[in-house]
Design goal:
Signal transduction protein, 15 helices, 378 residues, binds iron/sulfur cluster, 66% helix, elongated, mainly alpha
Length: 378
């Protein structure tokens, strides 16, 4: 099962070779959900490899434990190979299909699209809004809409958001068609709570309580903690947006809202937590051992973190500058970043969230249909 070192090979073919070695070895049984899922299997079709790649939560434990890692002729590097499969899998399932090429150039695409949309928004505002309005101090209700009219703001944000939701949902459906088991609906419904619990708690990133090899041989819980902080911040910004929309439409009170109000408090705390989570994940990414990492996945991680940081920082700038003459430009910048982010989102690592949830649901279904087989001793 060894491979000549200079043979060019695609990630799925390499994953098939490694998974067959692992299924025979099973030393890492108990490290994660991948190993129970491959126990007793001798062949791995592409759909199975897709599922296993997203079931791997990249803890890298099997890399540091593996007696067949390089320089052994088997050259087993399961984390790097499954990370590379994940990138191929995103490109195979992305919708619309013409976005597939974007994954190879995710850094450029993110920078060019978000930069172009933001510059276009700034140019439009500079052309269309009189300087005394754009650079004026507006503090009364509806102040934001004096710079960017409400209809234009909601149409730009709403349409780009709808595009992102539809494209990500279509990619997720395509992925589920690939990995979904033939199970009755009642089994799927029974599996849902366990899968949801895995998603919400990020249980796997805890490495069974000991942490993961986030940056090297030393175990840590950094990635899990930063992930939680980022998701909590993101959820608070959603709460801020929804509560502001409700206040606008139900009570008829347009933004900006007082400092002590749900939209402002949730938005501020959410933005700060998002930046803290991004900083934590970026620190892990920067210090991480490169050997078990796939360069394409690292680029996608950094691209998504940069997007989230730009969105959170520009949102906080609007909150901080809303009673000053800089509000108009800060608002335009934020709107451009948000719309650009929604436009590129379906071609970013954001797909990881629903794909990982789908893989965890499939694993929960498998546990109900056929409880995992363990190698001897457990
Ligand atoms: S990663 Fe290495 S040690 Fe672990 S199961 Fe696979 S071959 Fe065995
Ligand atoms: S990197 Fe971690 S999650 Fe992925 S296969 Fe290895 S032990 Fe499992």
């Amino acid at each position: 099962m060894s491979r000549p070192a200079d043979t060019p090979i695609d990630a799925a073919t390499e994953a098939e070779r490694l998974l067959r070695i692992c299924a025979a070895c099973m030393y890492c049984d108990g490290y994660c959900a991948v190993f129970p899922a491959i126990a007793g299997k001798h062949g791995f079709p592409l759909a199975e490899i897709d599922h296993l790649a997203h079931l791997c939560h990249n803890c890298r434990g099997c890399w540091y434990a593996c007696q067949y890692a390089p320089p052994h002729p088997f050259a087993v590097n399961l984390p790097r190979t499954l990370a590379a499969v994940r990138q191929e899998s995103f490109a195979r399932h992305v919708r619309p299909r013409w976005l597939a090429g974007a994954f190879a150039r995710t850094g450029w695409i993110v920078a060019v699209v978000v930069g172009a949309v933001t510059l276009a928004a700034l140019a439009l505002v500079l052309i269309a809004v009189p300087p005394e309005i754009l650079l004026g101090v507006h503090t009364s209700g509806g102040a934001f809409y004096r710079v960017v009219p409400w209809g234009i703001m909601t149409a730009a944000a709403g349409l780009s958001f709808a595009w992102a939701v539809v494209a990500v949902a279509a990619a997720t459906v395509a992925f589920w068609r690939t990995i979904g088991p033939r199970a009755p609906l009642r089994i799927v419904l029974r599996a849902l709570p366990a899968a949801l619990a895995d998603v919400v708690t990020l249980r796997n990133l805890g490495g069974g309580g000991h942490g993961c090899n986030d940056t090297g041989e030393k175990l840590s819980g950094e990635r899990r903690a930063s992930h939680h902080v980022l998701v909590a911040g993101f959820a608070l910004t959603i709460l801020s947006t929804v509560s502001a929309a409700l206040l606008h439409h139900v009570t008829g009170a347009p933004a900006p809202y007082p400092v002590v109000s749900l939209p402002v408090l949730a938005g501020t705390l959410g933005g700060v937590l998002m930046l803290a989570g991004v900083a934590g994940l970026a620190a892990v990414e920067t210090r991480a051992d490169r050997e078990p990492a796939a360069p394409a996945e690292t680029r996608m991680n950094i691209g998504l973190l940069a997007l989230l940081a730009a969105t959170a920082a520009s949102g906080l700038a609007v909150l901080g500058l809303r009673a000053t003459a800089a509000m108009g430009l800060a608002l335009t910048l934020h709107l451009g970043v948000v719309v650009g982010t929604f436009l590129v989102l379906p071609a970013t690592k954001m797909l990881h969230a629903p794909f990982r949830a789908a893989a965890l649901l499939r694993a929960a279904i498998d546990r109900l249909i056929a409880p995992p087989r363990r190698s001897g001793g457990e």
